[in-house]
Structure formats: structure tokens, C-alpha cells
Specification:
91 residues, mainly alpha
């Protein structure tokens, strides 16, 4: 079982809250809400996604890079996977 699956209820809760925040942006745009309000909603989504990303990165580090039971090859593979994701994330 993947470590993400061990925390799936918590992660799904976060994702669902983010989906609700994105839906609020859509409603704000459709309703012609003030620019500042829509920007505030977008900033909240960005923060929520960043928090989700932080949690997923930490889980990956603990399970695929730092876990005592890993071989050096497994650690290197886990680090390579994370480096690839972070390159995409920080573009």
C-alpha cells in the first residue's frame, strides 16, 4: 500500500476544499465579482495547493528517500523522482 493511500482521507479532504475554492472563483467570475475579491480567492487556492504540495513532498521524502529500509538505489530513484517533480513545479 502506498504511503499516500495511508493518508488518503486527509488528502482527499484537502483536495475537495481546493475544488470548492476553485468553484468559488468560477462563481465569482460568472457573477462579475470585484477584481480584488476574485484575486483574493485565487490567492487562497494557490496557498491551498502549495500546502498540499508541501505535504506530498514531505511524504515522498520520508518514504522514498529517507526511510531506513531503502537501498541506496531506491533512495536515488526516490530523489530523482522528486527532483523531476520539483523542476516542473518551480517553472
Amino acid at each position: 500500500m502506498s504511503h499516500v493511500h495511508q493518508h488518503s482521507k486527509k488528502l482527499l479532504g484537502r483536495v475537495r476544499r481546493i475544488a470548492g475554492q476553485v468553484a468559488a472563483i468560477e462563481r465569482a467570475i460568472e457573477a462579475g465579482a470585484p477584481c480584488a475579491e476574485t484575486l483574493h480567492l485565487a490567492a487562497a487556492v494557490r496557498g491551498a495547493v502549495g500546502g498540499l504540495m508541501d505535504e506530498l513532498v514531505e511524504e515522498h521524502l520520508r518514504e522514498h528517500v529517507a526511510a531506513d529500509a531503502l537501498t541506496p538505489e531506491q533512495r536515488a530513484a526516490g530523489a530523482d523522482e522528486l527532483a523531476t517533480v520539483l523542476r516542473r513545479h518551480f517553472r
